[in-house]
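It would be a great kindness if you could assist me with a short task in structural biology. A protein sequence and the structure tokens that stand for its backbone fold form the material at issue. I should value your view on which stretches of the chain appear to form regular backbone elements. The record follows directly beneath this note.
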Amino acid sequence: MPRFNRLVALAALGYLLQSCSQNSDGEKYVARVGNAQLTEKEMQLAEGKQPFPRQYVSEWVTTELLYQEALKRGFTESDVVRRQLEDARKQLIINAFLDKALYEDSASVSAADLETEFRNHADAYRLREDVAQMSFAIFGERDAATAFRFRLLRRARWEEAVADPTAQASMLRLATREFFSQSVLYPEELWKIARTLNKESPSFVVKTNVGYCVAVVHNIRRQGETPEFGYVREELRERSLMDRRKQRYDSLVTALRAATPVDVRLDAVDSTAH
């Protein structure tokens, strides 16, 4: 386990055990190991972080068993453990500080900024494989798929057709204007449709191993071409956020170094390396 993850895990372990091991008279508990209790309130607080309650309780019990055994064997007195916990505590506090003071107001990037970035660096995003923008619906019955296709042929908009209660009753899967490459598109018959179907025309009903499919191809870009903005929007956003946060981080560290006395004795550092 990388050192950072190990330190954070140790600190989280200490926090969890400290909070769960306290006397909780009057509170209902969902699990108990020795004198340690996991209360209903603590479970509620953990719901947002752990969507599987039974798994969370099982992990809590295992953690508590190991912690209590470590206490019995005197591991809390270990200088190594104390140092690791202190290092992890510092890192957790730093992370909380950066999230609040440095990154909180950079959590979003305007669409205009992303579009400008894309125009200026479009060549960097050229496709390594063909990508299709498609809508498709898969039905459990052929008759339902056929009726859905007829609605599209009568020039119903895709969004209107999929909102029809009759269509929804037997619809197994739906995708609306999503981007797919061959490697991620399933079932595989859909890629054959993407390569041959005229744009904005509903396909025939295609039988697949997961149901009866009707698809519409909105656009397709070939390997080496510049993709549509929508295909790379999320990648652009992530890159922009990373660049912005790195700039702010570097500026903060530079300002702190200028404002705080720092004394590094390189001769001592070099001597400890031998």
